[in-house]
Amino acid sequence: MGEVVTRGDVTWIVRKRARDEIQAIWTTGDATYNDNKIALQEMLCAYFSEGGCISKQTNISPIKGAAESKSKALKVRWGYPGSGKSGGLRLAVVVYCEEKRVEVVACWMRKEDPTDDDIIAALDG
Fold it and tell me: What is the pLDDT of residue 2?
């Protein structure tokens, strides 16, 4: 088994666009916001831990050709607790595996499911 990566091992960055989009869904004063943030971070830590940042996972799909050489662009499906079967978010995320850094770039509601092109545009913007 590989290295187990914890939330404290990772640098977490939420770019302005994603922060604005997330805050439109949750207010930071919402008691569930922090719980959901922690649960999402733990899920992303598993990406670093399981397979060493190379495997596709159930809720994480790499976007080919969309990132710099030392990073990976990912589409993350996040069915946060209480969102229901048709709820949840789609996140554009960039991970820097060697640095153990995660940048959340953009966020969409599930019903607005972004295409790979939408995610690539968010990475550039």
Answer: 63
pLDDT tens for residues 46-99? 888 766 777 667 788 888 765 666 788 888 888 766 666 567 888 999 998 889
Long-range contacts of 70-75 (CB under 8 A, 24+ apart): 70/96, 70/97, 70/98, 70/99, 71/95, 71/96, 71/97, 72/97, 73/119, 73/120, 73/123, 74/47, 75/114, 75/116, 75/119
What six digits make up the tokens of 45?
């830590």
To 5 degrees, how large is the angle CA 68–CA 70–CA 76?
A: 75
Spatial CB neighbours of 54, under 8 Å, sequence gap ≥ 6: none
The answer to whether 39 touches 88, Cβ cutoff 8 Å, is no
**Arithmetic mean of pLDDT, 30-49:** 82
Which two structure tokens, joined as six digits, stand for 55? 């495997």
